[in-house]
């Protein structure tokens, strides 16, 4: 009975409503998650671009040095570029996931096979990553360079375009996609499996609460380009 109730609730939503709610929930979850961990994200990028061996002690030293020399808000430097990427990325990813499930007929009779669930997740990851890939490069550049060099997102794109060429925006695209496909596939497979397992017990809970919580978790721990 619980499963039937949940199924009827889903059928009541039009495709346009599903798209809108997926876009909104994904965008909000992505923004909250990435803003929360922005200082840690900047620390990670600092180690990556400077090829320094990571240690907790060195990470804390970097955070304290940045706080002392540049101020509290410097820890969130590059977060505007992160928001410009993660908001559309998360929104597109979860919306694409719902639409790929429709194309692959995952929610129709006999369609919920592990292979189709994995494929829908993989394609959603590739779709969102492909459309927002240049923004990830801009985010990394702003996080590790001085503010005078890259003060705005527009400056990042303009300077890279004129000095390094348009191909730079998609540098490392193939290796990134090779990582995105299995990661997104497994993540969404687990996401859909957990939803089905708990749907019967939690059908009386507002669906938007469950959805935004799950999306917040997967956005926070989801794949990011190294």
Structure overview:
This protein has 226 residues and is mainly α. The protein has a single domain (2-10, 17-221), classed as Mitochondrial carrier domain (Mitochondrial carrier fold, Alpha/alpha barrel). Helices cover 77% and strands 0% of the residues. The chain is built from 9 helices and no strands. It has helices at 2-12, 15-36, 38-50, 56-70, 79-103, 114-144, 153-163, 173-202, 207-221. It is globular. The termini are far apart. Residues 1-8 have low confidence and may be disordered.
Mean pLDDT: 77
What's the β-strand tally? 0
Major β-sheet, in short? none
Shape-level CATH architecture: Alpha/alpha barrel
Structural class: mainly alpha
Rg is 20 Å
Number of helices: 9
Low-pLDDT ranges:
1-8
Distance between the amino and carboxyl termini: 46 Å
Which SSEs are present, and which pair or pack?
Blueprint: H1 2-12, H2 15-36, H3 38-50, H4 56-70, H5 79-103, H6 114-144, H7 153-163, H8 173-202, H9 207-221
How would you summarize this macromolecular structure in one to three sentences?
The protein is mostly helical.
List keywords for this structure.
226 residues, mainly alpha, Mitochondrial carrier fold, 9 helices, 0% strand
């Amino acid at each position: 009975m619980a499963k039937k109730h949940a199924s009827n609730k889903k059928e009541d939503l039009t495709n346009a409503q599903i798209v809108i709610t997926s876009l909104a929930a994904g965008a909000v979850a992505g923004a909250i998650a990435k803003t929360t961990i922005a200082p840690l994200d900047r620390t990670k990028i600092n180690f990556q671009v400077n090829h320094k061996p990571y240690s907790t002690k060195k990470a804390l030293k970097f955070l304290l040095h940045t706080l002392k020399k540049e101020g509290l808000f410097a820890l969130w430097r590059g977060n505007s570029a992160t928001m410009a990427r993660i908001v559309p990325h998360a929104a597109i990813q979860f919306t694409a996931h719902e639409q790929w499930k429709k194309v692959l007929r995952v929610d129709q009779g006999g369609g919920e096979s592990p292979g189709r669930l994995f494929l829908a997740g993989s394609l959603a990851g590739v779709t969102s990553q492909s459309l927002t890939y240049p923004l990830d490069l801009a985010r990394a550049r702003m996080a590790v360079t001085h503010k005078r060099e890259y003060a705005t997102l527009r400056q990042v794109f303009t300077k890279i375009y004129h000095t390094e060429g348009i191909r730079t925006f998609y540098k490392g695209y193939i290796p990134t996609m090779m990582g995105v496909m299995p990661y997104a596939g497994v993540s969404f497979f687990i996401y859909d499996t957990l939803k089905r397992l708990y749907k019967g017990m939690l059908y009386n809970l507002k669906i938007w609460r469950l959805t935004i919580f799950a999306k917040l978790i997967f956005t926070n721990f989801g794949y990011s380009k190294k």
